[in-house]
Design goal:
By secondary structure, the chain is α/β, with parallel strands linked by helices. Helix content is 30%, strand content 22%. The protein is built from 9 helices and 13 strands. Helix 2 packs across helix 9 and helix 4 runs parallel beside helix 6. The protein binds adenosine-2'-5'-diphosphate (A2P). The site of adenosine-2'-5'-diphosphate has 17 residues, from helix 2 and helix 5.
């Protein structure tokens, strides 16, 4: 094996039909991974759907087919080319190294490896070159909020140097998983029927409410979801000097995260310049009232679609080199499943 082969780990895949495993295939992200693989005609020779013992023996949809779900704990990963993991950090920590040792390239949607120096953290449109160094055979898929933010901010950073980011998120419940989707539906129906809303997944009622709490509270007063925006932004943009100030809020929306983002740049960027850069950026669609386009929302634009939508692009009245943007995307697609499949496509096309 060459030095480069050792650095990258995994078998040559170009031009072959591949054995692809989806771990967490019954979950909110896993089922979208399956549909994105089918939609984009990924070169799947064999698809293995894996989940816990609880759902083994059931079926999941893959294109026009149904695939039987198998138990991850008893599955032999030998022969798997690419494994897409979205079953939580504990499952990734235990099983991703086993799949990689068996020769698979693992694309992991959990936060288990994102901060490890020898695991690349990659947004397909932003830093695809980072895929080239994956000594452990594991690639990390960024957090959904960071993902959509950086698809929009990377072109502005390249042009004018972002020094500081202020972001408040409005995150949908699908980011928490299938049980959270059910909880929002159940609480909404209960309240409309004059019944009490019982919180189970979230600490307080989510229906008709907003919750300034994502993940766990840390010693510094921030939540883990907020700190992901700080750490992951620096790693993906390769710039530890970028200051990020984040507030994560969960809102009663099923699919699609929104973000009110204010940036401060080293060089002045006008709203018109930013709009032009964003219109030319891969993966971005500008929807902006200032040019007669209105504004994007999760329901009207993002849900079920691929792009990162950007609107409300305007100069910050309180800062000479400040810009405000409103960034909306489907957190399950670009924020998770779509990016994972895009990374798989890049891996599969390597010589
Ligand atoms: P299962 O349906 O068998 O519980 P979500 O984030 O939408 O809740 O989905 C989580 C996904 O991770 C599901 O597919 C779930 O499978 C899977 N999962 C959770 N725990 C395990 C485990 N210990 N082993 C394998 N898969 C797991």
């Amino acid at each position: 094996m060459t030095m480069q082969g050792r650095a990258m780990r995994g078998r040559a895949m170009r031009g072959r039909a591949l054995k692809v495993a989806v771990v967490g295939a019954t979950g909110a992200v896993g089922e979208t991974m399956l549909s994105v693989l089918a939609e984009r005609k990924f070169p799947v020779g064999e698809l293995v759907a894996l989940a816990s013992e609880r759902s083994a023996g059931g079926e999941v949809a893959f294109g026009n087919d149904e695939v039987m779900v198998r138990d991850l704990a008893t599955f032999d990963p030998a022969g798997v080319d690419i494994a897409l993991f979205s079953a939580g950090g504990d499952v990734s920590r235990e099983y991703a190294p086993k799949f990689a040792a068996a020769g698979a390239v693992v694309i992991d949607n959990s936060s288990a490896f994102r901060r490890d120096d020898d695991v690349p953290l990659v947004v397909a449109e932003v830093n695809p070159e980072a895929l080239g160094r994956r000594p452990r055979g594991i690639v990390a898929n960024p957090n959904c909020s960071t993902m959509q933010m950086l698809v929009a901010l990377a072109p502005l950073h390249r042009a004018a140097g972002i020094e500081r980011i202020n972001v408040a998120t409005y995150q949908s419940v699908s980011g928490t998983g299938r049980r959270a989707l059910e909880e929002l539906g159940r609480q909404t129906a209960a309240l409309l029927n004059f019944q009490p809303a019982e919180p189970a997944v979230y600490p307080v009622q989510i229906a008709f409410n907003v919750i300034p709490h994502g993940g766990d509270f840390l010693d510094n007063g921030y939540t883990s979801e907020e700190m992901k925006l700080v750490w992951e932004t620096r790693k993906i943009l390769g710039d530890d000097s970028i200051r990020v100030n984040a507030t994560v809020v969960r809102v009663p929306v099923f699919y699609g995260h929104s973000e009110a983002v204010s940036i401060e740049t080293r060089d002045k960027l006008t709203a018109a310049q930013a709009r032009a850069l964003l219109e030319a950026a891969p993966g971005v669609e500008v929807v902006d009232e200032a040019v007669g386009g209105g504004y994007p929302t999760p329901v009207t634009h993002a849900s079920g679609r691929d792009p990162v939508y950007v609107g409300r692009i305007r100069e910050d009245l309180s800062h000479p080199r400040g810009l405000n943007l409103w960034i909306v995307s489907d957190n399950i697609r670009k924020g998770a499943a779509l990016n994972a499949v895009q990374l798989a496509e890049l891996v599969a096309s390597e010589a």
